[in-house]
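for the writeup, i need someone to sanity check this before i put it in the appendix. the sequnce is what the collaborator sent (i think, or maybe the updated version? ugh). structure was predicted straight from it, no edits. if anything looks off just tell me and ill rerun, i have time this weekend
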Amino acid sequence: MSTPVATATEQTLPIDRAVPPRAPSLRWRLLAIAAIVVAAFNARTAVTAVGAALPELRAALGLGTVAVAVLTALPCLCIAATTFLVPFLRRRMGTLSSVVMFLGVLLAGQAVRIAHGQWQLLAGTVLACCAIGGLQVLLPAVCQQVGGPHAAALTTLSASVIGAGAATATATTPWLTEIGGWRTGLGFWILPVVAALLLWSPLSQTSRARTAAPQAPRGRSLLRSARAWYLTMFMGLQSLQALSLLSWQPVLLRTTGIGPGHAAALSAGTLVVSIVSSAVITASCYRNARYIGAWMVLTTASGGIGLLGLLIAPNSEPVLWAGLLGVGMSALAPAMAAIPANTTGSGETTRLSAMTQGYGYLLAALGPALIGALTDVSTTADWALTALLFFSLVQFLFASLAARRPHDLHAADLEWSTMR
């Protein structure tokens, strides 16, 4: 007796058939956009601030090698674990109320970890990273609910702000730590969370009354959609590249013979370029959401060329390679924008967001650990750069598949076993 299989189709993902709510006022939309921007700013600061203050944390708390490894591995694992719970929480609480809940958890986590002690630091980081996972999944759904026809552009804007928040925390936390110690360096990032809560609390109360509607049926499982898996693999691989570079780019540059000061400046330049590139992608997607696929391909190709340049000629044009890597790191913007662009209805958007980021961050968690291991066992950066280049080529493959229009694809080019 043959085992039944489900054919993955390339049609647009299942459509929620919910009755659309009454169009909100302009004032409500402006408040919602401001709230989205502030929430997105908080979606990385709690993570990058720890990395920026890590030397002071090790000295003050006596963190050993195991504790540091756990602390740096927590973000991806916690984000991935939380994303799978978000669709359930959203169905029980509503989209915007769930955002308020995760912001509260983020506030609690950041408050707990500035208490003196290794366990408090780890526990607070777990809470903060779980909250970040929830926020990242919900942001595309909120952008679709608020942005209407410009949902993809608004999602791209949120991704750009996420990168800006990460870069801001990376750049300013060492300065804050030098002024007031590691508690000041980490505790300062509680303030933007408070600002986000002040915006989201009244917004969620207004929205609850405005959007009281029955939940739409779940429809077909996204695990049986080839397009959903293309987007998931792209999200995971671009996150793997970005997290690996955030963790190891200065070390890799120094291993190629570049001086410490120059390596730090090039790494900072990569972040700046990624922010500018994300802003350009946002403007492009605002004009036409069809450009999302092209940006997925272009950002991946740019990052791959930058890695190839570092591998074969690291000292010839280091500024050019750093700039190309920055464009590659902005791949998060089209990856996030593709979520609402391929769905209809905030419920389906939440499920696709949970799938792409949940499985994606599980894959991404392997990156920094692998690059660190390759860097430790080799006296050069060649092995680490070669591994990143390989992942870039795989990412380019999935970017090309995800960029194709659904009606241009074959209806039965992938098969997945039926989930029992």
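The mean pLDDT is 82. The chain has two domains: 26-208, 224-411.
thx in advance!!
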